[in-house]
């Protein structure tokens, strides 16, 4: 994309991240940690002494598993650059050239944006989630403007 060819008011690189899931993840992680700490403090000395190292390890492993799931949701992002769109969904990332993207869709009731690709497949973009309301609608308009601009190369 030539310099200065971004849609009006949109500078590249541009990053979109989901707000609701990030807030929910942070709150859930905080509540989980506080709950476990207060539960452990609430046990009497005899109960704490009866907990085996294996049981402690199981609780720690479960906490790490839940934490990794929350982190996966918090990592989601989409980064538009001159070369294309980087989509990070959880722990997987994929870069799409602008020529590969035919359309950007988020029909009513859909949880997040879907990209229609030139090879006939679709790709989810969890970084733009409908639960974010107006913020998501603005992000969809911005992404569509980048995909639909007249100077975008096409592989159709």
Task: Give the total of domains.
Answer: 2
The CA-CA distance between the termini, in Å, is 18 Å
Q: Specify the oligomeric state.
A: single chain
Query: What is the strand content?
Result: 15-25%
Describe this structure in words.
This protein is an alpha+beta fold and 156 residues long. It folds into two domains: 21-73; 76-148, PH-domain like (Roll), CATH 2.30.29. It has four helices and seven strands; from the N terminus they run E-H-H-H-E-E-E-E-E-E-H. The protein has helices at residues 20-42, 45-50, 53-75, 134-148, and strands spanning 14-16, 77-80, 84-89, 92-97, 101-105, 112-117, 122-129. The strands form two sheets. Strands 1-2-3-4 form a four-stranded antiparallel sheet. Strands 5-6-7 form a three-stranded antiparallel sheet, covered by helices on one side. The longest helix has 23 residues, at 20-42. The radius of gyration is 21 Å and the shape is elongated. The chain starts with 13 loop residues before the first strand and ends in an 8-residue tail after the last helix.
Lay out the secondary structure:
Elements (H helix, E strand, L loop, with lengths): L13 E3 L3 H23 L2 H6 L2 H23 L1 E4 L3 E6 L2 E6 L3 E5 L6 E6 L4 E8 L4 H15 L8
Antiparallel strand pairs: 1-2, 2-3, 3-4, 5-6, 6-7
């Amino acid at each position: 994309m030539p310099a200065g060819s971004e849609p009006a008011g949109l500078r590249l690189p541009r990053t979109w991240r989901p707000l609701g899931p990030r807030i929910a993840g942070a709150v859930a992680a905080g509540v989980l940690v506080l709950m476990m700490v207060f539960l452990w403090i609430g046990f009497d000395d005899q109960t704490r002494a009866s907990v085996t190292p294996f049981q402690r390890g199981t609780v720690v492993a479960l906490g790490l598993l839940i934490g990794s799931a929350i982190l996966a949701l918090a990592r989601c992002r989409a980064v538009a650059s001159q070369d294309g769109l980087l989509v990070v969904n959880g722990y997987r990332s994929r870069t799409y050239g602008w020529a590969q993207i035919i359309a950007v869709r988020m029909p009513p009731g859909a949880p997040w944006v879907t990209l229609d690709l030139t090879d006939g497949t679709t790709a989810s973009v969890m970084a733009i989630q409908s639960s974010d309301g107006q913020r998501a609608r603005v992000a969809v308009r911005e992404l569509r403007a980048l995909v639909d601009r007249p100077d975008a190369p096409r592989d159709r």
